[in-house]
Amino acid sequence: MITERMQKELNDQVRKEFYSAYLYLSIGAYFTSINLEGFANWFRIQAQEERDHAMMFFDYINRVGGRVQLGAIDAPDFDFESIEQALRLTLEHEQLVTRSIYNIVDVAIEEKDHKTNQFLQWFVNEQTEEEASADANLKKVQLVGNDGRGILMLDGEMAQRVYTPPTAAV
Ligand code: FEO
Prior knowledge:
Blueprint: H1 4-33, H2 37-63, H3 83-110, H4 114-144, H5 148-158
Helix pairs in contact: 1-2, 1-3, 2-5, 3-4
């Protein structure tokens, strides 16, 4: 069983994860519009992972006898100044998600909700990966700058990413 307060926090995280999926689909569409299909592939897969995260929270709420309440998802940005700006936005967004996860952990600790705290630890670890990959992408783009060949090389690298479903959180 979870408290009303915890249920509200978890439902809000479902919404935030779906928003993340929406944002990354939008960034992916931007990359398609500038013919960088490798970057588009990376973001499309990232969006799939975000839907997985949303459903992990969704399933957890159900599993502990809570009630899923889906909130409205904001429209994401759809136009970006540059490749670098889109990648910086991605990193900033992941940092925001990390703070959100940490906040729910704080609530779980306050409420002595050890089960939810345990469930959230998967996401604490995942956010380390999420921030690291967003940071690496940004730094690589900053490294090549406006060099077209460098961007195309990175695009080829991003095209290699394949979707792998997450290993389930407990
Ligand atoms: Fe669901 Fe990108 O963290």
